[in-house]
Amino acid sequence: MLPLIPFAAVWLCTAIALWLAPVLGLVDAPEDAPERKRQSSPIPIIGGTSLLVAGALVWFFLGPESFGLEAEFEDSLGMVGLALVLAFLVGLVDDCRP
């Protein structure tokens, strides 16, 4: 049952992101650069956000054990969190530039 909770969290956050992206204008539209874009419809650019939020929620409510990590791992959470946020920011900057 426990493995289904992270799956459900990611699924729910992704569904919310897919619904919210067009409302907030956070999509990569093919008409922005037709010579470069191959998609025929707008693609949401906030998928990384939904994964980060789902991971944070699962970590907060279920703890590091839900990821198969030992309790000693909590000592390095700051570095892991920093690495995840940096990876998220790099993806966000990449998605937001033309």
Task: Summarize the entry for a quick read.
A two-stranded antiparallel sheet has the order 1-2. 58% of the residues lie in helices and 4% in strands.
How would you describe what is shown here?
- This protein has 98 residues and is mainly alpha-helical.
- The protein contains 3 helices and 2 strands; from the N terminus they run H-E-E-H-H.
- The protein has helices at 4-24, 47-62, 77-96; strands at residues 27-28, 43-44.
- A two-stranded antiparallel ribbon has the order 1-2.
- Helix 1 runs antiparallel to helix 2 (47-62).
- It is elongated and about 50 Å long.
- It starts with a helix and ends with a helix.
Largest sheet: 2 strands, antiparallel
Radius of gyration: 16 Å
**What characteristic shape results from the CA principal axes?**
elongated
Q: How far from one another are the termini?
A: 42 Å
Structural class comes to mainly alpha
Query: What share of residues are in beta strands?
Result: under 5%
Which strand order do you get reading across the main beta sheet?
A: 1-2
Tell me the number of strands. 2
- Number of alpha- plus pi-helical segments: 3
**Average pLDDT number:** 77
Helix content: 55-70%
The succession of helices and strands, N to C, reads HEEHH
Uncertain parts: none
Give the key terms.
98 residues; mainly alpha; 2 strands; 4% strand
